[in-house]
Design a protein that fits this description.
Layout lengths: L28 H30 L30 E6 L6 H11 L7 E5 L9 E4 L5 H11 L3 E4 L20 E6 L15
Parallel strand pairs: 1-2, 1-5, 3-4
Antiparallel strand pairs: 3-5
Pfam families: LytR_C (PF13399)
InterPro entries: LytR/CpsA/Psr_C
Protein name: LytR cell envelope-related transcriptional attenuator
């Protein structure tokens, strides 16, 4: 290396520095230990959670897919048992243009056990009533209506206050307590239509 030709000055006689120059401090060994412990704890926690989740999936407590549709349980509607109760009075109305149907049906009802004076006949305001129907007033009358419908055969049953007695405030008795069933004969029993055989 070529020597400098410049004259020496006081800066050329600086003493050599003692010790290391530019050395980095070493990391605190305690800090490194805490970092390792923290990462180990996190890894352990993740493994525990993954294990619990896998156990729940295998045991079926957690489903990853869509839930299978549950088949609905069939519901059976409760039906009122039919009871033939001859303590009810009966009004038979002819809802067709054919004459004599009310009298014929009255005879059938009397033959089934109803007193003759408890079964009345008449004509309905309509002559095109579709389906022969037994009408009853109260919920407690439904079983008797079903029994009468089975007695005459092929009749529907419906709840209505049609032609049911109402209480007269001028009398001591409550006429609305009278047990009455109304039968309206429909076109299903008119001429040319086949009626069902009455229940025995």
């Amino acid at each position: 290396m070529a020597r400098s030709t410049f004259p020496r000055d006081r800066f050329d006689d600086l003493p050599d520095p003692a010790g290391r120059v530019g050395a980095h401090r070493a990391e605190n060994p305690r800090l490194r230990g805490w970092i390792i412990f923290l990462w180990a704890a996190i890894a352990t926690l993740v493994l525990i959670i993954a294990g619990i989740f896998a156990t729940l999936v295998v045991s079926g407590r957690i489903s990853l897919g869509p839930d299978a549709e549950t088949a609905p349980n069939p519901t059976v509607e409760a039906t009122t048992p039919a009871v033939v109760d001859t303590s009810y009075s009966v009004v038979v109305l002819n809802g067709t243009a054919d004459e004599g149907l009310a009298g014929t049906l009255r005879d059938r009802i009397v033959a089934a056990g109803w007193p003759g004076d408890a079964v009345e006949t008449g004509d309905s305001d309509s002559t095109d009533f579709a389906q022969t129907t037994v009408f009853y007033l109260r919920d407690t009358d439904e079983a008797a209506a079903e029994g009468l419908a089975q007695t005459i055969g092929g009749a529907s049953v419906a709840q209505s206050d049609f032609l049911q007695p109402t209480d007269d405030p001028n009398t001591p008795d409550d006429e609305s307590d009278v047990k009455r069933l109304i039968v309206v004969i429909g076109l299903d029993r008119a001429a040319g239509q086949t009626s069902e055989t009455p229940a025995s």
